[in-house]
Write a sequence for this structure.
């Protein structure tokens, strides 16, 4: 499929009228919608903004490629827009963007569509091609330039190779897998050709792994560049020099990365967690710290908790005890929802937590021991805390086993992952959990549960005040995640009140600052006012990170305002006796809270108003700030 099958005259805007990032997104979405390419304009915009919240798609060199893959697209398409003056798109190089390609892919897009979109991404790395787009006077000239570029690529598909050249391998990957994955790949390939270096790139895109690296190629390679923003298979690179960077660096710094690989100025990757450069210790996936391992477990566990918690909450609509066949309020649908949510999804929560913590520490060999340890914690009553211990215990035990077995003959290498690691990992983890960990942790959990249940109203309000405030201190950082993790542990223990305070506190910073930009417009720049509109959605969706740009720009005023508002919301949630069985979902799960949903909304609104007014009063008018700067 040709790019011009997706980009047509009716999706081209030669003179964009927009002056801001959100405005240009709206203008391009409007063009796609008018051309009949979307079936839900607002849902598509939400998908675009969600992708932008991960990292900007303004890749530099005057280019921005906003993109999304969603069912809101009725027909795969590309919209092109051009701005002569340029628009501040928060690009990686800090410069204005002039050329905009908005990629609309639907969930069922086949590989042909996705490969066509990736081909466009690679074209944009050519400065001559960009120059033609900038000087084109008509839509036809735009399409003709793309046609010429496609014909040039067809003639130059085969990679050059020579036994005399140094051999470098690369892997590129981004969360969406539509643009950045392929742009990084093409930037590296183009620079390697210029430097006369043999380079093969594996892409982990939406259509799967392409150009996969073989075992023989890895063995022959001088070094490997991994430019990725998502997890890729690393154990295959054991013993090789590996450079690990974000995918954006593959686009922006290809020459630097290739030269670093040629100089072998990179750590030697060890799957047992040891990474060395000239006998000096360096960070590696196995030594990235407690927080990274914990978040790996929590993020993979979250879908089980969210899905299971919401199903349990829905079952309560039929009655608190409607899932019990012996209760007069029994209803078979309530029993089914409770069984699926609590008996199955929740049952997997702690094993998955432990399994992925262990896998983060020890790679794939840690997964099975972690899962088993987590299952033992869950079934033995050690709960969430027991699962955490099981995950870290299993992970570091397997790291130790890798070191212990490293001296075995090479002929036994193949049986380590299928026999030795699972056998001894599961055995040792299981024995320690059974005889040392489970009983004391179960006793601690029982004591904590009794303590929370025995708390008076004043103490509960204070707890809500602390938990709510913690959610706003670093807005998605370690303190925020510590409160969130505590809330999930309490849900597992059957105490839903703490997490209600936590979610209320997490929703307040973006909602409060959005409201502040609406009420105190003179205190915020145009860009901040536009960001405020997005924060209404992010706050309602319990995405605290939406407030980070405001906090980064003015931490001395914004953070105190956010913390105070969040603390108020958390305290009020406790006062109103709200319980939340689902750990995520924002406004979408408010109808299923335990208690009065309207009072929960009131707690969040009051906290947001407090944040809005404190921020509005503390901040100075933008014009005054400009005069001070000029002085």
């Amino acid at each position: 499929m040709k790019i011009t099958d997706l980009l047509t005259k009716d999706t081209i805007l030669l003179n964009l009228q927009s002056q801001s990032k959100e405005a240009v997104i709206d203008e391009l979405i409007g063009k796609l919608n008018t051309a009949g390419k979307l079936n839900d304009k607002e849902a598509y915009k939400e998908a675009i903004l969600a992708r932008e919240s991960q990292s900007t798609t303004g890749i530099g060199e005057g280019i921005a490629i906003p993109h999304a893959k969603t069912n809101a697209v009725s027909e795969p398409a590309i919209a092109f827009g051009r701005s002569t003056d340029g628009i501040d798109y928060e690009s990686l190089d800090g410069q204005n963007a002039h050329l905009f390609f908005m990629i609309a892919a639907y969930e069922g897009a086949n590989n042909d569509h996705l490969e066509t979109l990736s081909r466009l991404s690679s074209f944009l790395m050519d400065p001559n091609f960009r120059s033609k787009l900038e000087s084109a006077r008509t839509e036809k000239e735009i399409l003709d330039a793309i046609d010429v570029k496609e014909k040039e690529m067809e003639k130059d598909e085969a990679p050059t190779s020579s036994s005399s050249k140094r051999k470098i391998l690369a892997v590129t990957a981004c969360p969406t897998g539509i643009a950045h994955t392929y742009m990084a790949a093409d930037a590296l390939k183009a620079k390697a050709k210029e430097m006369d270096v043999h380079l093969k790139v594996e892409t982990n895109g939406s259509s799967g792994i392409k150009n996969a690296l073989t075992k023989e190629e890895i063995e022959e390679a001088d070094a490997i560049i991994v430019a990725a923003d998502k997890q890729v298979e690393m154990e295959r690179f054991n013993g090789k020099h590996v450079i690990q960077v974000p995918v954006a660096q593959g686009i922006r710094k290809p020459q630097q990365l290739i030269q670093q690989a040629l100089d072998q100025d990179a750590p030697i990757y060890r799957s047992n967690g040891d990474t060395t450069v000239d006998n000096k210790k360096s960070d590696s996936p196995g030594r990235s710290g407690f927080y990274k391992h914990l978040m790996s477990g929590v993020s993979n566990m979250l879908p089980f908790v969210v899905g299971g918690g919401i199903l349990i909450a829905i079952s309560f609509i039929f009655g608190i005890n409607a899932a019990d066949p012996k209760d007069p309020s029994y209803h078979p649908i309530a029993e089914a929802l409770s069984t699926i949510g609590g008996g199955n999804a929740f049952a997997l929560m702690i094993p998955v937590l432990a399994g992925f913590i262990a896998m983060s520490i020890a790679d794939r060999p840690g997964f099975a021991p972690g899962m088993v340890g987590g299952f033992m914690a869950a079934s033995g009553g050690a709960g969430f805390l027991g699962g955490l211990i099981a995950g870290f215990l299993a992970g570091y035990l397997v790291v130790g086993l890798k070191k212990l077995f490293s001296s075995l003959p090479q002929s036994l290498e193949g049986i380590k992952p299928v026999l030795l690691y699972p056998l001894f990992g599961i055995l040792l983890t299981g024995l320690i959990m059974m005889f040392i960990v489970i009983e004391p942790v179960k006793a601690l959990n029982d004591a904590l549960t009794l303590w929370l249940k025995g708390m008076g109203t004043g103490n509960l309000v204070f707890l809500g005040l602390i938990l709510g405030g913690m959610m706003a201190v670093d807005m998605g950082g370690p303190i925020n995640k510590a409160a969130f993790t505590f809330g999930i542990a309490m849900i597992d223990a059957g105490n839903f009140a703490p997490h209600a305070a936590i979610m209320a506190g997490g929703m307040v910073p973006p909602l409060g600052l959005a409201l502040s930009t609406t009420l105190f417009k003179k205190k915020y720049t145009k860009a901040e006012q536009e960001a405020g509109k997005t924060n209404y959605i992010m706050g309602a969706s319990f995405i605290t990170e939406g407030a980070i740009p405001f906090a980064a720009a003015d931490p001395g005023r914004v953070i105190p305002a956010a913390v105070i508002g969040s603390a108020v919301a958390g305290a009020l949630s406790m006062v109103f006796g709200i319980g939340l069985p689902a750990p995520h979902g924002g406004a979408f799960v408010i109808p299923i809270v335990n208690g009065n949903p309207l009072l929960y909304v009131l707690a969040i609104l009051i906290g947001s108003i407090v944040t809005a007014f404190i921020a509005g009063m503390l901040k100075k008018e933008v014009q005054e700030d400009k005069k001070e700067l000029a002085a």
User: Anything to note?
Assistant: Confidence is low (pLDDT under 50) at residues 157-164, 272-288, 624-631. The two ends are 58 Å apart (CA to CA).
